[in-house]
Amino acid sequence: MPDTAALECLRALIAGAPVSLLVTNRADGPPAIRPMQTVLVDADFAVWFATGRASDKCRQIAADPRVTVYWQQPDVWHYGEISGVAEVVDTPEARHRFWQDDWSQYFPGGRDDPQYVLIRVTPERAICHHMQDGSTRNVEF
């Protein structure tokens, strides 16, 4: 069972960070890092993102599903990451559950647009660092 204080640190970090960074592995070079809107971090700390089916990140996940998601609150230097295994999810239930109307600019066909898919990151481990108290907490899921 993960440490409760570590999980609380992680929840506070994610709630206060405006953007996350999704890090995937390229076959031919350094990791790919891009800002992403975190759609949801569920009770089990699985992280959900929406993206386009033809994106580089989907191809990279298909080739190597190991990813890292990074968050930072720059005003207090509270930062951390979740590392785990990503999968592209394309079920009607998930597509309808997570759909947000403002995504229509990217997916004009709405929640049924064939390009709209989700990425789910199942956590394996996490690190949460808080500069104010100097603590670093590690979590194994």
List the keywords:
20% helix, 42% strand, 8 strands, alpha+beta, 141 residues, single chain, 8-stranded antiparallel beta sheet, Pnp Oxidase, Chain A, 3 helices
The CATH class is Mainly Beta
**What's the domain count?**
1
Secondary structure: number of strands: 8
Low-confidence stretches: none
Average residue pLDDT:
93
Gap between N and C termini: 7 Å
- Assign the CATH topology: Pnp Oxidase, Chain A
The named CATH superfamily: Electron Transport, Fmn-binding Protein, Chain A
The topology string of helices and strands comes to HEEEEHEEHEE
Portion of residues in helices? 10-25%
At CATH level 2, the architecture is: Roll
Described by strand count, sense and barrel closure, the largest sheet is: 8 strands, antiparallel
Q: What is the global morphology?
A: globular
In terms of structural class, how would the helical and strand content be classed? alpha+beta
Number of helices: 3
Gyration radius from CA atoms, angstroms:
15 Å
